[in-house]
Amino acid sequence: MAYKPVAGAQMASPNVIPMADIMLVLLIIFMVVTPLLTKDIPVDLTPAQNSRDMQDADKDDAIVVAVTRDGRIYLGSSKVEKDDLTGQIKDRLSSRLDKTVYVRSDSRAKYGDVVAVVDEIRSAGVDQLGLLTQRMEKATTTPPPPAAD
Prior knowledge:
The protein is α/β, with parallel strands linked by helices. It is built from 3 helices and 7 strands, in the order H-E-E-E-E-H-E-H-E-E. The protein has a domain at 47-135: Nucleotidyltransferase, domain 5 (2-Layer Sandwich), CATH 3.30.420. Strands 4-3-2-5-6 form a 5-stranded mixed β-sheet, covered by helices on one side.
């Protein structure tokens, strides 16, 4: 008579605990990464040497208007038309004490487009208007070595 192992009771449902753990980790990763991806519309800011720091422009509730090189206008990360810009800025400023709007303009944007956006922002009753630029790093030059006599 040959030895035959006896099979134990079979489990009818799969173990979903490891899958739930993986799904929670992925959810946390996406929750952390998603706001970083949609923060700003990419524009090449104009370099300036005498720019001032505007830390308030980096806040999450800052009102930032971006003008791209082809003239498209974005309020935050949503595209708006020039005619709708004044109304949307008025809506956002209605419940705020700080009525500052920041403009991020591409260095290759047409001057007329940027002026038209600034005019629309001013007509919304904005107290302060900040033009964001890229700070130029001052070149540190090392003095030449002394001449050998």
